[in-house]
Amino acid sequence: MKNSVTFGMILAAGFAGGMLTRFVAPPPVLAQNLIVPTELRARSFVLTTPEGHPAATFTTEPMGDFNYRVVLQSPKGNTLWSAGGSMLRPLAVTK
Fold first, then answer.
1. Are strands 54-62 and 68-73 parallel, antiparallel or unpaired?
2. CA 71 → CA 43, 57, 61, distances in Å?
3. Whole-angstrom distance, CA of residue 69 vs CA of residue 79
4. Exposed/middle/buried for 58, CB within 10 Å: 0-12, 13-18, 19+?
5. How far apart are CA 26 and CA 45, in angstroms?
6. How far is CA 2 from the centre of its chain?
């Protein structure tokens, strides 16, 4: 009989301790924001290899007054792909 009383006290103490932590401990902090952002802003995005080295960069290039195009550049600065702006590129830029 002594074992059943001891087991009952252990069970009651565990239950009471669990209930007590619900009211005494601070609520858990969640790292997620419940409000979904509607936009993401950046000047460029760097794509990396699995080792962490830059492989390419998405950025913008000015194409005159208030006109830009999206460019994918290699780590050396060569244009790999572009969209927007004018299809004609000047042979030389003079100032």
1. antiparallel
2. 12, 8, 7
3. 12
4. middle
5. 38
6. 58
Predicted confidence (pLDDT) at residue 95 exceeds the cutoff of 70: no
Residue 57, H or E segment: strand 54-62
Spell 4-42 as b/e; 16+ CB within 10 A means b: eeeeeeeeeeeeeeeeeeeeeeeeeeeeeeeeeeeeeee
Residue whose structure tokens are 């301790």: 17
The label of the residue with tokens 């460019």 reads 71
CA-nearest of 57, 36, 55, 37 to 46 is 57
The predicted-structure confidence for 31-77, as pLDDT tens digits, reads as follows 766 677 778 889 999 999 999 999 999 999 887 777 888 999 999 98
Q: What is the pLDDT of residue 54?
A: 93
